[in-house]
Amino acid sequence: MSGPEGQKAAGDIRDRARLAVANERLRLALATATGRLLERSARAFDTLPDQRRAKGQARAARQHGLANLDVHLERFVANCVKNGMHVHFAADAGEAARIVCELAKDQGSVIKSKSMATEEIHLNDALLSRGIDVIETDLGEWVLQLAKEKPAHIVAPALHKTTAEFAGIIGEKIGKTLPEDPAALVTAARARLREEFIRGGVGVSGANFGVAETGTLVLITNEGNGRLVTSGPRTHIALMGIEKVVPTLDGVVALLRVLARSGSGQKLTSYTSFISGPRRADEPDGPDEIHVVLLDNGRSRTLGTDQWESLLCIRCGACLNACPVYQRIGGHAYGSTYPGPIGLIATAMVRPDEESQAVMPHASSLCGACHEICPVQIDLPRMILSLRAQSVAEGRPPALERMLFWMAAFVFRRPWLYRAALGLGAFFARLVGRSHLRSFGPKAWTRSRDLPMVAKTPFRTWWAERKRRP
Amino acid sequence: MAEPKRLSLFATCLVDSLYPRVGQAVVETLERLGCQVGYPEGQTCCGLPFYNNGFVDEARALAERTIDAMAGEETVVVPSGSCAWMMREIYPTLSERGAKLSSRVREYSEVLDELPGFRAKTGAEGAPRKLTYHPSCHLTRGLGVDAPPRRALARIEGTTLCPLKGETQCCGFGGTFSVRYPEISTAMLEDKLADAAKTGAELLVVTDVGCLMQLEGGLKRKEAATRVVHLSELLAEGTLEPEKKV
Questions:
Q1: Which helix (H) or strand (E) holds A10?
Q2: What is the pLDDT of residues A154-174, one digit of tens each?
Q3: Closest residue of B to A415, CA-based?
Q4: At what angle do helices A69-82 and A51-67 cross, to 10 degrees?
Q5: Among A81, A165, A453, B14, which residue's beta carbon has the most beta carbons within 10 A?
Q6: Residues B30, A326: Cα–Cα separation, whole Å
Q7: Measured torsion, CA atoms of residues A431, A434, A435, A436, in degrees rounded to the nearest 10
Q8: What pTM was computed for the model?
Q9: Of residues A155, A156, A193, A198, the one with CA closest to residue A174
Q10: Closest A-chain CA to B69
Q11: Which of A306, A367, A460 would best serve as a mutation to test chain B binding (most B beta carbons within 10 A)?
């Protein structure tokens, strides 16, 4: 991972989290940004007459698609082809990157609108390694590309960066000293990016949804860059997860109603594009070719597991904003394309390794704030629990941990043994003569908190004595 | 005089071993309100720590043993939101007999709420009067129980309930999360304690023994003047009686 918070030297999420928590500047930036997003989102939802119903309808639209994904996918593909688009299937990240690179070669530079799916397949690295230049055109993504960083949030990729940092990075690129004024920075970035839009030979985007009944790609942005990317260059390539298929346009309406509200606190984003094919003979603008690359990368496998519900996700980022863990460590500490609560599930899906399956699922206090805020009501704590169960079923936890839990269960299953252990603890507590431990005991707890000792008189002892009294 | 309400206490292993004062307060307050409280001695742990760490087989075994230990028809009162969540929400998924016990389980404040009503007053002179309340994640979001503890607190005469900023933010305990990710857990705790301190309250009231352990651990380490208590302890400290029938 390349990040500013010194993650390079760090081992896994635990080490990166430790560094991130200690970074006061980062914590302040995160608290401010997530707080503002949550507040704006709450206000936007207040404009709906019935939020619960809106969320229910959005979930139903997603569930409708997932319930018979094969059927809806086939229909989506057939209609895309009928509309004159080309459709490709990619089983994994590597294949998807190869397909895009093959389509993009020999056409000049690639201009990109913001897309998590392209991050997931590490498309920029793949393009650059084949000598194809690539430019991000979402302001936040562009600044991160210049700073050689990865996005730290699903919808607000540079939320960990201050205006001053933006000014420094953009100023260096265009060779000017820029004021710490957002409007001036946007103007400077706009002028510079305009040149890239004109130069770009291939436009690469993601897709928020794919409509099966019409063969339409739905793309939402706020900066208008999505529209330029998908209409300027001769070739447009859209990378879309297979789970993003929505059967009907009505379903998309239900989803748009909650997506911008959840993601950026808007009723609608500034631009909502419905792309149903390349430029027609009588049209002056638009690409000559549109390629839709459908990405599996673990999705069809997940559909058959206890974590299937996570595929309902519409990538709004609300669960990141609401998560007390994300609020304190930010996105880079997760070391994955997808951070936050949904990131715990999505990372295990797209990158099933030891860290994502055995370590990351524990980076949650299971407080449920993510479930509460999710616009499609994904029960994220249950998904996280199911990952933990899977990790145990596959024998992943360290031997010591497994032994401790096995021993604890052995004791708790035998009340006589439990009573004996409790008696021993109480005896020891009386011997020590203190109610709390400060320096002994597990350091992970006692470094910041006093640890209560077993009570000198456990509850059951009190109860038994009380019963004996007349 | 109506038949006294018969209750069966599931004390939880944390109360039994670390916080017997909470169990005692639960028994004493419910008895003062006319309930008959029993304590089946075969009980140990509900299995939540095992379930939360993915040890589902062990959790199931403990669920089965708890179902056996808590046999009967009485309402089962649990003085901790997270254990009540385990028994109510998870037991039915672990055991065929789980649903029956699950339907009998009530968290302490829910039991109070189902009683005909009570009058409460803070203890003698000098007793704390300014309170603040931390709603636990498992009780509010997990079980959807939000109003009952607040209604109970509102009944205590002579106290002021100070609103806690960001009250629904997790205290950072999360079971083994607190030791697997101690720095994040501590950062969450620090923020919670800072918010609590800002209210100027003398007492921080909780309804979950996990939160109690976390918050108490942090307060003691800081040697702070604020005290954290379980709702039952607060009620037990003062006078408490059933509401007189008019």
A1: none
A2: 999 999 998 999 999 999 999
A3: B42
A4: 80
A5: B14
A6: 41
A7: -120
A8: 0.95
A9: A193
A10: A415
A11: A367
